[in-house]
Amino acid sequence: MIFKLSPGEQTQLEKIKTLISKEIKKNGKITFARYMELALYTPLLGYYSSCRPKFGKEGDFVTAPEISPLFALCLAQFCKEVSHSLPHFQILEIGAGRGSLACDILQTLFQEKMLPEKYFILEISDFLKQEQKNKIKTACPHLLNHVEWRKNLPTDFNGVILANEVMDAFPVHRVYLDEQGIQEYYVSEKENHFVWTLGKPSTPLLETEIKKNNFSELPYVTEINLLFPTWISNLGNCLKEGVVLLFDYGYPRQEYYHPERKTGTLRCHYQHHAHDNPLILTGLQDITAHVNFTQVAESAEQAGFELLGFTTQAHFLLNMNVLSYLNENLNLSQQAKRLIFPGEMGESIKVMGLGKNFDEPLQGFSMQDQKYRLWTIPS
């Protein structure tokens, strides 16, 4: 696979490869989780920290808020529903992309005279933060004073926390299973190229997760995210009263480890080309791994959350009456298909609602709540 890089991209690639090479030389190898962390989040050089376009036609991939304002319309109604049960109401969006979702939600709530006290955006990328500011200044300047950017979570937060396609970009460990047991994939270097190498697991936590599932077909390659417990716990410490709403590609545990996925779920995106080699185009391409939603639910329970619902994006949006916004608008109809059709995002993206001191029924999970899928024991 050959891509033509611009001079700026080539320079960025060489710089981040040099940085990672130095770390590899210290011990001969690094875990894939560490490699993924450096490739995505190294200041100025990592994928999410650099100034390269990431979203939309000129970027590498498209998310639901970029596809259609219908997504934001449904989430605005969800936020409005939650706000009725809270004396003080705020919204926190984690990783706001180019700011499309924030702008569209605020516009909708403004028109309905239901603005939150504050719309927080948690954004680690200075480049994306500036993109978000520019978007809001251009599209809804009268709402800019309602938005506050943060590098860390607020405290005593009441309201809705939104995370759309955030968890699949968390650094993951990659493991190999066969009849002899479990090994971990590490990244080393050979002839100026990053290569895979197998070794003993870097932590016993990997085997703990693996033992929660029965593997009928070996060998098997998969990814394990060890960051969920801490991340969910931090959200629990931030949220005083309200709901966390998570959208992401993923599966319940028994489907996550299905024989169909015996080569793992790692995906890379560069200029709208998808492939499965994360060791090339370092810092220039997105790297993702699907989410084990049972693991997220377990982490949430340990953090004191109540599981309010689990379903597909299609069912969630249909529950939120997405079709009522179409009004014979052909363009919106095509956008809706991308959001809800099974062959598009409808089935592959799952939605999870977590409550803290909040146990009201939610419209988004009123039909086809599939919490039972999270706990189905594999045969």
Task: Describe the protein's topology.
Blueprint: H1 7-27, E1 30-31, H2 32-41, H3 64-67, H4 69-83, E2 90-94, H5 100-111, E3 119-122, H6 126-139, E4 147-150, E5 157-164, E6 173-178, E7 181-190, E8 193-199, H7 205-210, E9 220-224, H8 228-238, E10 239-251, H9 253-256, E11 267-270, E12 273-275, E13 286-288, E14 291-292, H10 293-302, E15 306-312, H11 313-319, H12 330-340, E16 349-356, H13 372-375
Parallel strand pairs: 2-3, 2-5, 3-4, 5-10, 10-14
Antiparallel strand pairs: 1-7, 6-7, 6-9, 7-8, 10-16, 11-12, 11-13, 15-16
Helix pairs in contact: 4-5, 8-10
The biggest sheet amounts to: 8 strands, mixed
Structural shape: globular
Oligomer: single chain
Report the count of strand segments: 16
Low-confidence stretches: none
Total number of helices: 13
Strand content: 15-25%
Q: Supply the CATH architecture of the largest domain.
A: 3-Layer(aba) Sandwich
- Radius of gyration, in Å, reads 21 Å
N- to C-terminal distance: 39 Å
Question: Could you please say which CATH topology of the largest domain applies here?
Answer: Rossmann fold
Mean pLDDT: 95
Q: List the domain count as a whole number.
A: 2
The SSE order reads HEHHHEHEHEEEEEHEHEHEEEEHEHHEH
Name of the level-1 CATH class of the largest domain: Alpha Beta
Q: Structural class, from secondary structure content? A: alpha/beta
The percent range for helix content is 25-40%
